[in-house]
Design goal:
By secondary structure, this protein is α/β, with parallel strands linked by helices. It is built from eight helices and eight strands, in the order E-H-E-H-E-H-E-H-E-H-E-E-H-E-H-H.
Length: 262
């Protein structure tokens, strides 16, 4: 059995065949999927899907690219829903910063402000975080430590094999491993994966993006976690069954056994 800890099933790419996607997930023993919050405007669909399907859960949050949409009252309202189990995805993304130095620093500061606000909300509501980090490892790590995010912990979504972030395993953070681990050019992640404590590993797809080999280029979906699990098991030199059992245990630990009776 597997739990997909990050899949945007409320994305328009799933509008036409979501029931078939979920059927394939069940067929391949993907017992639950978490829909992260990125754009608050898409939350109503995520909530509706979770109310309709027992195996779906959601998070509330604002992606750093959508920081101007941050509305704490709105997130707080939806966070009270019984199927909201996390805050995020939130974090820092410096991939598309402005070229002008003043504008660049302003963008960074605005992202940090919204990131910190969501960490504080997670701690207040006692929900783990789903963290998005892209080309901002040092700042993200510093903020997570300074704001004592370890009180709730969370997932470093789509872990990018940054050595800078490895220390966060000691701060109650888990490492979300996705389809990138199956790519031929993922040498760094393949090298670092065995360095991550096994009790801090999780599986995700980030669907509809980052589809694993051999389906790269097509839409991603939860049942492809089986391909990710197979590659992780190969790298760690354990059986896939052992790997999947470990992932279930880790996910339940972070989310306080919310998936235990699905």
């Amino acid at each position: 059995m597997i739990i997909d800890t990050h899949c945007h099933l409320n994305d328009k790419q799933y509008f036409d065949d979501l029931e078939e996607v979920l059927a394939r997930s069940r067929e391949h023993q993907v017992i639950a999927t978490i829909i992260p919050g990125a754009d608050p405007r898409e939350l109503p669909r995520a909530i509706a899907l979770c109310e309709e399907h027992k195996e779906l859960f959601f998070a509330v949050g604002v992606h750093p690219y959508d920081k101007e949409l941050y509305d704490e009252a709105l997130l707080r309202e939806h966070a009270s829903h019984p199927k909201c189990i996390a805050i995020g995805e939130c974090g820092l993304d410096y991939f598309r910063l402005p070229e002008d130095q003043k504008e660049k620093e302003l963008e960074k500061e605005e992202q940090k402000k919204v990131f910190i606000a969501q960490i504080k909300l997670a701690i207040e509501l006692d929900k783990p975080l789903i963290i998005h980090i892209r080309e901002a490892s040092a700042d993200s790590k510093a903020i997570l430590i300074e704001e004592e995010a370890k009180k709730v912990g969370g997932i470093l979504h789509c872990f990018n094999a940054s050595e800078t972030l490895l220390e966060l395993d000691k701060h109650n953070f888990y490492f979300g491993i996705g389809g990138v681990v199956t790519f031929k050019n993922a040498k760094k992640l393949v090298e670092i994966l065995p360095l991550i404590p096994r009790d801090k590993l999780l599986i995700e797809t980030d669907g509809p993006y980052l589809t694993p080999h051999p389906h790269r280029g097509s839409r991603n979906e939860p049942y492809y976690t089986t391909l990710i699990a197979a590659k992780m098991a190969e790298i760690l030199d354990i059986s896939q069954n052992e790997l999947e059992a470990l992932m279930i245990s880790n996910t339940n630990r972070l989310f306080k056994d919310v998936f235990k009776y699905i």
